[in-house]
């Protein structure tokens, strides 16, 4: 066991955990942050997608020993005081069906829009291809990303996260 300190959703946290424990378990079981979901444990479904230093990553693959001093953001920290424009668009487009994959989908979409503020359908499909929605809400996901892009470009909504 070792102490691991990192920034989680804007707050410095310190946890005692084995160096080789996947960050997903630290987030969920030690810190009680349940937005990132356990889907596959091998990085292929995207249900746990979060941000590490502003980039999308899979906490199920990242060991806690590798995040010392770094910034981790989960869906819980995304909107700050309000909803992020992507979250607003998700609600407006009624994307969620079962909702299990949605935190990971949203976190991936935020990074996409930060890098490409006007994505085409092909851009969206490529960027989101590694996030699986077992309910098949891909058409609504694409519509929500387009709506969020408009919100972000117009300056409407909450901060960009």
How would you describe the overall organization of this protein?
The longest helix is centred in the last third of the chain and has 17 residues, at 138-154. The mean pLDDT is 94. Helix 3 packs across helix 6 (138-154). This protein has a 5-stranded mixed sheet with strand order 2-1-5-3-4. With 161 residues, it is an alpha+beta fold. Helix content is 37%, strand content 14%. It is built from 6 helices and 5 strands; from the N terminus they run E-E-H-E-E-E-H-H-H-H-H. Strand 3 (50-52) and strand 4 (55-57) form a beta hairpin.
Please sum up the structure shown.
Helix content is 37%, strand content 14%. It has helices at residues 23-30, 75-78, 85-92, 102-115, 121-128, 138-154, and strands spanning 2-8, 11-17, 50-52, 55-57, 71-73. Strands 2-1-5-3-4 form a five-stranded mixed β-sheet.
The structure class reads alpha+beta
Uncertain parts: none
Q: What percent strand?
A: 5-15%
Q: Report the count of strand segments.
A: 5
Q: Which oligomeric form is depicted?
A: single chain
How far is the N terminus from the C terminus? Answer: 32 Å
Helix and strand pattern: EEHEEEHHHHH
Percentage of residues assigned to helices: 25-40%
Radius of gyration: 15 Å
Described by the principal axes of the CA atoms, the overall outline is: globular
Q: What is the tally of helical segments?
A: 6
**Arithmetic mean of pLDDT:** 94
Strands of the biggest beta sheet: in what spatial order? 2-1-5-3-4
Main sheet makeup = 5 strands, mixed
């Amino acid at each position: 066991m070792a102490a691991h300190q990192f920034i989680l959703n804007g707050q410095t946290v310190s946890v005692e955990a084995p160096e080789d424990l996947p960050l997903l378990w630290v987030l969920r079981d030690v810190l009680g942050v349940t937005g990132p979901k356990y889907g596959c444990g091998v990085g292929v479904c995207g249900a746990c997608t979060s941000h590490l230093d502003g980039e999308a990553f899979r906490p199920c693959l990242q060991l806690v020993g590798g995040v010392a001093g770094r910034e981790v953001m989960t869906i819980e920290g995304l909107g700050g005081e309000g909803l992020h424009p992507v979250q607003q668009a998700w609600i407006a487009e009624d994307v969620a069906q079962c909702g299990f994959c949605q935190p990971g989908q949203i976190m991936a979409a935020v990074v996409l829009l930060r890098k490409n503020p006007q994505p085409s359908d092909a851009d969206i499909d490529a960027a989101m291809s590694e996030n699986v929605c077992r309910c098949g809400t891909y058409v609504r996901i694409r519509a929500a990303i387009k709506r969020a892009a408009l919100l972000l470009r117009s300056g409407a909504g909450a901060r960009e996260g």
